[in-house]
Amino acid sequence: MITTSGDAATRTPLNEGWRRFRRNKLGLVGAGIILALFLIAALAPVIAPSSPYAIVLSEAYKSPSPAHWFGTDEMGRDVLSRIIYGARIVVLVSLTSILLAAVSGALVGVAIGYAGGIIDDIVMRILDAMLAFPAFLLAIALVAFLGPSTTNIILVMAITRFPRFVRLIRGKTLSLKQMTFIEAARAIGVSDRRILTHHLLPGCMGPFVVYASLALAGAILGIAGLSFLGIGIQPPTADWGVMLSRGRQYLFSAPWLAIIPGLVIMITVLGFNLLGDGLRDALDPKT
């Protein structure tokens, strides 16, 4: 069968990846959940039924009803409004921290992987020492040292995810730099900087994008865990982890205060995991 020039023009790697991703129903579900999360965060002032900080003590502990779809908390605040505004914290902190860790980790990983030698050995031993500690315990220690604030939580989440991005990109770089096209680029005098930016970094994008989406799920759980322990996002900020922590005190008298934030966290993390699995299948070079 002869392929026309028009067909060849449309069969780009991006188009092929999109075709494979569209066939992954669970991946599309994950993408829909994440898109909904971003829209809710962006439109929070418009779609929230009331202020998430409005205290009405006479409305405390109201169960879910048409007036308050998700009920009210111990201070009479609307739980749905706090869930909606809590999406902003999730998007801001998780996205910023993973973006910071991913960009810095990719640059360091491709640089040391390509350079090799003593620099590679020193950096990897430092990262090995960091990875010797469980990420969540390291995050607790760093927050205890820096203090609980939104800026510090972003920094801590980025630091704890940074070593994994470096190892991922370094490993891919070590594989790619042995390929024939890299040796050919060196042979014709292409500069190291151009090889790094035009050949190695683009070649690492597949696993990089997949891992970044999965790392976002881990970051959301980490942020919620720190807030649950009382050392993450601080009240009265509307945050899902804070809501879950306070809600567990009323698990038997007002169970919606714990169940609803827990379900929202679970669905959001599930969305990122499904999206990551879909991207992995779509970007797999073997397919």
Structural write-up:
This protein is an all-alpha fold and 287 residues long. The chain has a single domain (30-46, 87-283), classed as Orthogonal Bundle (MetI-like fold), CATH 1.10.3720.10. The protein has 13 helices and no strands. The protein has helices at 5-10, 13-22, 25-42, 44-47, 79-115, 117-131, 135-146, 150-176, 180-187, 192-203, 205-229, 240-247, 256-283. The longest helix is centred in the middle third of the chain and has 37 residues, at 79-115. Residues 1-6 have low confidence and may be disordered.
Q: Quick gist of this model?
A:
With 287 residues, the chain is mainly α.
What is the count of β-strands? 0
* N-to-C order of helices and strands: HHHHHHHHHHHHH
- Mean pLDDT figure: 83
User: Radius of gyration in whole Å, from Cα?
Assistant: 23 Å
CATH fold-level topology: MetI-like fold
The end-to-end distance, rounded to whole angstroms, is 21 Å
Low-confidence stretches: 1-6
Strand content: under 5%
Which short descriptors sum up this protein?
13 helices, single chain, 287 residues, MetI-like fold, mainly alpha
SSE topology:
Layout: H1 5-10, H2 13-22, H3 25-42, H4 44-47, H5 79-115, H6 117-131, H7 135-146, H8 150-176, H9 180-187, H10 192-203, H11 205-229, H12 240-247, H13 256-283
Helix pairs in contact: 2-13, 3-5, 3-13, 5-8, 5-11, 6-8, 7-8, 8-11, 11-12, 11-13, 12-13
